[in-house]
What we know:
Elements: E1 15-22, H1 27-41, H2 48-65, E2 69-76, E3 80-87, H3 107-114, E4 117-123, E5 128-136, H4 157-160
Antiparallel strand pairs: 1-2, 2-3, 3-5, 4-5
Amino acid sequence: MAADDSEIDRASWPLQSSLELAAQPAAVPLARSHTRQVLAKWDVDGLTDPAELIVSELVTNAIRSATTSVTLGLASDRRRIQIRVRDDDPDRPALSRAEPDAEGGRGLLLVACLSVAWGTVDLSGGSSKAVWAIVETAEPTPPGIGERAVPLRPRDPQLDRES
Length: 163
């Protein structure tokens, strides 16, 4: 993750896409649609569901605080997706505990649960920020994991004999 206004490192993240959105509620479905299309084009659509949910949460938060526009950045190395949402509000979001009957306040908790890492970066000398998250494919399950390693009950040699 770059700590300034520079582009995301192309060597680590060779596939990149960026979309500028108006800071309006209509930006959220556009951001999800863009994410779906880009990930399909990059052939990493196995990450689409968590990426779309994270994009939805981060763009929703950004349009609530932005005064101008919001920029959605996507980057991939085909194993991971980096989602980056930039807005012009310098205040960093924070995880909070939502009351059980609250209608909101769980977005960053979802982002934290669906990503392997997330955070914020100050941009433009602290006058704006980017919130980022990384989603990655599940590693293949090693052989033997999830398979029954021992029989349900010990074998009884008496029962194994033929009569």
